């Protein structure tokens, strides 16, 4: 079974530029998550989708971050304009459903460095 | 809201020995799960073990086991017969909450070193 796929794996941009990350969840998984992991911290949830609807985006900085999952499968996370403090690993994850008992599977992450 | 505290930034264990990683949590939920994830340098989060809060029996997965103390809100991970491949960051996490029942809240992690 293929895992959660993410691209690009690494990205270096200058502040105020834009960047987009792509995620393809495990086939059949209805719930998709984007987490931000800053160096030395645990991952923090940015946004959770159930199919193509947003369940939780309370910690997404909406002035610069946006995410979509138009067809209920792939998702894109965009940052525009980027700030230095956005340097982090962006982890995409998926689960079969959004209930508490479901195992969440993570991708390998997209490393962003803002200079 | 949930909080997870890992008070050990780093731990070290010799190969073949046993090590215990500590975790405490706080939650107002009655239905929740607890997890330990391993994060190697590749940064992919790999599920090690999970515990359902309503089960009193401690979960085990091969060399990994937990000590779940619900009243104390403590959830420690024991790794037996440590191997070099166990070296990684370990994160404790919990979920729960109506509407976003699967949302994970993570601790700050414990870096485990395994020495020869």
Overview of this protein structure:
The complex is a heterodimer of chains A (115) and B (116). Chain A has no helices and 11 strands. The model of chain A has no long low-confidence stretch (mean pLDDT 93). Chain A has strands spanning 5-7, 10-13, 19-24, 31-37, 44-50, 53-56, 65-68, 75-79, 88-95, 105-106, 110-114. The termini of chain A are far apart. In chain A, the strands form 2 sheets. In chain A, strands 2, 4, 5, 6, 9, 10 and 11 form a 7-stranded mixed sheet that branches. In chain A, strands 1-3-8-7 form a 4-stranded antiparallel sheet, with no helix packed on it. Chain B has one domain: Immunoglobulin-like (Sandwich). Chain B has strands spanning 3-5, 10-14, 19-21, 24-26, 33-39, 46-52, 60-61, 64-69, 74-79, 88-94, 105-106, 110-115. In chain B, the strands form 3 sheets. In chain B, strands 2, 5, 6, 10, 11 and 12 form a 6-stranded mixed sheet that branches. A 4-stranded antiparallel sheet of chain B has the order 3-9-8-7, with no helix packed on it. The model of chain B has no long low-confidence stretch (mean pLDDT 92). Chain A binds chain B through residues 31, 33, 35, 37, 40-45, 48, 55-56, 89, 91, 93, 95, 97-109, 111, and chain B through 4, 31-33, 37, 42-47, 50, 52, 91, 93, 95-96, 99-104, 106-109.
